[in-house]
């Protein structure tokens, strides 16, 4: 069994995924998808632990000691997934007290957890400060006051919304008007907010410029910008920075024509970035963090649904499955996409079959929004056959409106070394 080199007809990004094909079967974690779901039932998310570990190790190697990796828990908050990255050496980047609890449950030390998010509530701040937290990434004047009111010492960074020329990513969060952090151009007005503050130890800066960045040059130019910004901030503060958090946003290919982020190019740029930090005495010894989510968890996951019925309406073939946007909003194009494009989709028990049909894949919800793929090239399918959406390990189950229409939640299953386990929230 060798990693697949199947052509485009098996889904645009299949060649970029980590899975093997054995005759007709898509294989994950050493097991045929068909055999796993015969026991777990469908719909389900299957997560290949080795593929996720491989993504972590590839990134760690590319970074060559330049930055520590903190897994962004929002990508997939199951404690078993956080724990897997923790075993590899990752810290955790969280955005709520629920994610804090999941990270603690997964065994992450409180000192290796960092907390960002534009609307942190007083009760959340209290719980993480009392339980222990590496850093809080402050995003508003009110947050400063809320933390001060708790009256316990805590380390913090300022979250900065970078100026437009540093922006990148298909779904941009930085560079434009946003609720995330303070605008870079306001930095000199923001730092005085920390004067006379007794409990917050302002040690660093956090910049998150956008998600789904596939262009290594763009990522590196964003990181350079952040290092220079950190140096300016350190000068204004008149002290060295302990932390520079460069954000996440490393992309993965989903759609036809997209290629994976070139980690060799990232790696080649690391000596220059290290040198850039050394040029300024106040950033020379800072601890650098990157906090990817999608890049680590996305490629190792697939979403599997069973076909319920196949019908034709006015010339279009509709394949109705037992899964849909209530489990996988992102694949339906309703999470951050402007133009709906298909995630890579395959028939995991018919990998050798000819792709002789074009069909629209829909779920069981009573809305046309519940469309998983349009005009997808697929083998001839019938009720009882399986479909699998690839690149589904990040922003899947936890980013979907599972309550809508009250269908059951999808099972989530971790597969490793020829064995699988249902992992729950
Ligand atoms: C502050 C912050 N860090 C990290 C991430 C993870 O981003 P990605 O999954 O694109 O790496 C996000 C995503 O929204 C974020 O808002």
UniProtKB/TrEMBL annotation:
Matching Gene3D superfamilies: Alanine racemase, Lyase, Ornithine Decarboxylase, Chain A, domain 1
Domain Orn/DAP/Arg decarboxylase 2 N-terminal: 52-297
UniProt xrefs under Pfam families: Orn_Arg_deC_N, Orn_DAP_Arg_deC
Keywords attached to this entry: Pyridoxal phosphate
Entries under InterPro entries matching the protein: Ala_racemase/Decarboxylase_C (IPR009006), De-COase2_C (IPR022643), De-COase2_N (IPR022644), Orn/DAP/Arg_de-COase (IPR000183), Orn_de-COase (IPR002433), PLP-binding_barrel (IPR029066)
Cofactor: pyridoxal 5'-phosphate
UniProt domain Orn/DAP/Arg decarboxylase 2 C-terminal: residue ranges: 299-393
Family to which the UniProt record says this protein belongs: Belongs to the Orn/Lys/Arg decarboxylase class-II family.
PANTHER family from the UniProt entry: DIAMINOPIMELATE DECARBOXYLASE, GROUP IV DECARBOXYLASE
Protein name as annotated: Diaminopimelate decarboxylase
Organism of this sequence: Agrobacterium arsenijevicii
């Amino acid at each position: 069994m060798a990693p697949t080199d199947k052509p485009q007809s098996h889904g645009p990004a299949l060649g970029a995924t980590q899975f093997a094909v054995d005759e007709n079967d898509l294989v994950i974690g050493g097991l045929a998808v068909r055999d796993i779901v015969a026991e777990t039932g469908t719909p389900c998310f299957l997560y290949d632990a080795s593929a996720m570990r491989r993504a972590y190790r590839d990134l760690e190697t590319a970074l060559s000691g330049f930055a520590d990796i903190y897994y962004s828990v929002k990508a997939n908050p199951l404690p078993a997934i956080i724990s897997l990255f923790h075993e590899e050496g990752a810290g955790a980047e969280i955005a709520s007290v629920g994610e804090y609890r999941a990270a603690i449950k997964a065994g992450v030390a409180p000192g290796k957890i960092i907390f960002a998010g534009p609307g942190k509530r007083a009760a959340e701040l209290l719980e993480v400060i009392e339980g222990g937290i590496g850093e809080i990434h402050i995003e508003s004047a009110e947050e400063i006051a809320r933390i001060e009111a708790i009256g316990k010492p805590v380390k913090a960074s300022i979250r900065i919304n970078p100026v437009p020329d540093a922006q990148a990513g298909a779904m941009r969060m930085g560079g434009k008007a946003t609720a995330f952090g303070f605008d870079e151009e306001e930095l000199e007005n923001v730092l005085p907010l920390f004067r006379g503050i007794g409990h917050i130890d302002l040690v660093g800066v956090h910049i998150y410029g956008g998600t789904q960045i596939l262009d290594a040059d763009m990522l590196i130019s964003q990181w350079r910008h952040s290092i220079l910004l950190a140096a300016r901030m350190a000068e204004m503060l008149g002290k060295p920075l302990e932390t520079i958090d460069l954000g996440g946003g490393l992309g993965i290919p989903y759609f036809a024509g997209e290629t994976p982020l070139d980690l060799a190019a990232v790696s080649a740029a690391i000596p220059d970035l290290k040198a850039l930090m050394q040029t300024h005495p106040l950033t020379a010894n800072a601890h650098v963090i990157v906090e990817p989510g999608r890049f680590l968890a996305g490629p190792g996951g697939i979403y599997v649904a069973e076909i319920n019925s196949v019908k034709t309406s006015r010339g279009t073939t509709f394949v109705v499955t037992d899964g849909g946007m209530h489990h996988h909003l992102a694949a339906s194009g309703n999470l951050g996409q402007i133009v709906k494009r298909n995630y890579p989709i395959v028939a995991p028990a018919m990998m050798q079959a000819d792709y002789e049909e074009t069909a629209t894949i829909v779920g069981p919800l009573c809305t046309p929004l519940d469309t998983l793929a349009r005009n997808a090239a697929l083998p001839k399918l019938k009720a009882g056959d399986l479909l699998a959406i690839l690149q589904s390990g990040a922003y899947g189950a936890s980013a979907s409106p599972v309550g809508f229409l009250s269908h059951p939640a999808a099972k989530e299953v971790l597969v490793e070394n020829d064995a699988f386990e249902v992992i729950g929230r």
